[in-house]
Design goal:
The chain is mainly α. Helices cover 65% and strands 3% of the residues. The protein is built from 16 helices and 3 strands.
């Protein structure tokens, strides 16, 4: 019994020792992963492209914050200014409807503009949208505010991810894509702080509770100073486009190198007088010997005509069996070219 107990204790000690070693190895691997991640972060922080992108994120925080004012500030302003019957949901629905309609149209019409320019120009449209409510305290002003804000969003917001890819160094695209939403979350923090303060200062609660059966009555002499409220929001939002304008020479992505040179393009084009294009062989049958080359006899044949001719010849001969070939085709010399005249 004593020997068996000693043996079982020895096995337990060996198991505990093995578990301890495995724990040490796991801790070492996790430590290496942490150190590797820290090294990558340090290397990324020293990158010029990363600093440029972070500066762009910080500059556009106020531009992203205007969309959170659409969620947090505008509904309370509408209720406190126009009463419980204000069309809060109807006005808000203008934004998604316009985005779904305008984004593909604007994207197709502005393909020749760079990502940076689209962000720059669109930011002015969105930043100046609250000016409608700073000038006019009417329900139609809120509609114009949402329309202009949505128009600006359809111009610059889809290009933000493209800009992230254009400044990202090779192999770091995933990191920059993950950080593309950083200004939006920073904008939420700014809006949550500014919205409560501005509403309490210029348009405080008048005692009316629209969610109850008896909403109550407004405080006598109550006034909502919407002019000053939305003027401050306009000035804060305009800091983003003017910041882009001030630092645009540094923030603008560097031009990408050309993929091909003129010499490469000339080497790919066929000769104007007579071009000889070899057709690669993949099936070692008799029809491969029928198409050894294609000679274009007409001068000035374009590259598209040449490609179509080659595709037609290859598909026609590959689809045929050896049994379908005539005796004349079988004895044709593989060195004899198949000539075809293409008239333009």
């Amino acid at each position: 019994m004593g020997a068996e107990a000693g043996a079982s204790q020895g096995v337990q000690r060996e198991g505990q020792g093995g578990g301890y070693l495995e724990g040490v190895q796991d801790a070492g691997q996790k430590g290496q992963l942490v150190l590797g991640a820290v090294a990558q972060i340090k290397g990324l922080a020293r990158s010029r492209e990363f600093r440029k992108y972070m500066a762009m994120c910080i500059i556009t925080v106020n531009l992203k914050a205007i969309f959170r004012h659409l969620d947090a500030t505008l509904p309370k302003y509408q209720v406190r200014s126009f009463g419980c019957s204000a069309p809060v949901g109807t006005v808000y629905s203008i934004n998604p409807a316009m985005i779904m309609t305008l984004v593909p149209l604007v994207g197709a019409a502005a393909t020749h503009y760079s990502h940076f320019d689209m962000i720059h120009y669109g930011s002015y449209v969105s930043a100046l949208a609250p000016l409608w409510m700073a000038l006019f305290t009417t329900e139609w002003a809120t509609v114009l505010f949402v329309i202009q804000l949505s128009l600006g969003e359809s111009i610059w917001s889809p290009r933000w991810y493209d800009y992230s890819m254009s400044v990202a160094p090779e192999g770091r695209e995933g990191v920059f894509t993950a950080m593309a939403s950083a200004p939006l979350f920073l904008g939420k923090f700014v809006t949550g702080t500014a919205s409560g303060y501005l509403l309490g200062k210029f348009c405080p609660n008048d005692g009316v509770s629209c969610g109850e059966a008896t909403p109550g009555s407004q405080t006598p002499g109550y006034q909502c100073h919407g002019h000053m409220l939305w003027l401050i929001i306009t000035l804060l939002t305009c800091m983003s486009p003017f910041g882009i304008l001030l630092f645009q020479r540094w923030l603008r992505p560097a031009a990408k190198p050309a993929v091909s040179t003129s010499q490469d393009e000339e080497a790919q084009l066929p000769n104007s007088s007579s071009s000889h294009i070899d057709v690669p062989s993949s099936r070692q049958t008799s029809q491969d010997r029928l198409v050894s080359s294609v000679v274009l006899q007409e001068a000035g044949v374009g590259w598209e005509e040449t490609t179509q001719l080659l595709q037609g010849q290859i598909s026609r001969f590959i689809s045929r069996d050896d049994s379908d070939l005539s005796v004349g085709d079988m004895v044709q010399s593989p060195l004899e070219p198949l000539s075809r005249s293409v008239s333009l």
